[in-house]
Amino acid sequence: MAKNSLWLTLLMALIWGTSFPVSKIAINVIGPYGFRIAGSIVSCCIIFLIFNKSIRESLATLNFDEFLRISIIAVPNVFLVPTLNSIALHFTSVTNATILVYTMPCFTSIILMGLAKKLNLLSLFSLLLCFIGIFLILKAIHVGLGEIIILCSAIFWAIGAVVSQKIVTVTPFKAKLFWQILISTVLVSISYPFFQTGPLLQPIITAFTNTECLLCVLYLGIVGNALVYYIWFYLIQNESAEFASYATLLSPIITVIIASLFLSEEPTNKQIFGFGMILFSAILVNVVKPYLVKRS
């Protein structure tokens, strides 16, 4: 693992660790869909301003097949996962959403072992620990719509991680990030009219007129979307899907601490123990497994 990958992993963990609590604050005011659209628009604008030259140059190679490949990567990673996360946070606590969404590496390992048609004992053991942890957590809480949605998000996130590694594109990395976020923004906007009433939908303008919401949208749009997805796809490209997936498990520690300090959410002993098992499973695959491979 390169030294810069380690620092980027820590930065990604810090950003994602703060994202759920910040999102929850805005979602409580404007609802998940208004928040998603506002954040996506901000991300698109920021990425376009920063990587304008690379984006314009990418138009020379952006044919239909290339655009289709980029879209396939974008749908699970940049559209479905953030949207499902936002909706789940409307129905459940930051702590529950955080712990359950980071079961994603378990699903990533299952998919990769299935594709390779080869079982790895260490990966299987880490999966067992992870699923025991999930069981303990679900047993300790009421399983509602929010918990189901967040587990679906974890599955789509795992699919997205594998798809990102398997599908080859020729578009420069920076430009590809912009096209993916743009595709996500369009898809969120298209699905927006289906939520015309109810708490899932509030006027988008509130995101830019309410100071608290605006600060949350700017943070998530610039740091929590644009910057963090740059790091995410960089790690997948330069390390591996499994590495990037398990590296994200550093984030929940930060999130749970923030939720406890600022949102008055206290995890139960079973939740803490279950999360500890999930985190240990991550260490096995992210630290122990690469060490053993290197030794052999």
UniProtKB/TrEMBL annotation:
Location(s), subcellular: Cell membrane
A Pfam family it matches: EamA
Predominant location category: membrane
Entry keyword Membrane: yes
Keyword line: Cell membrane, Membrane, Transmembrane, Transmembrane helix
The keyword Transcription is assigned to this record: no
Alphabetical list of InterPro entries matching this protein: AA-Vitamin_Transporters (IPR050638), EamA_dom (IPR000620), EmrE-like (IPR037185)
Gene Ontology CC terms, in alphabetical order: plasma membrane
Domain EamA, chain residue ranges per copy: 6-138, 145-286
Family: Belongs to the drug/metabolite transporter (DMT) superfamily. 10 TMS drug/metabolite exporter (DME) (TC 2.A.7.3) family.
Annotated protein name in UniProt: Threonine/homoserine exporter RhtA
Organism: Dickeya chrysanthemi (strain Ech1591) (Dickeya zeae (strain Ech1591))
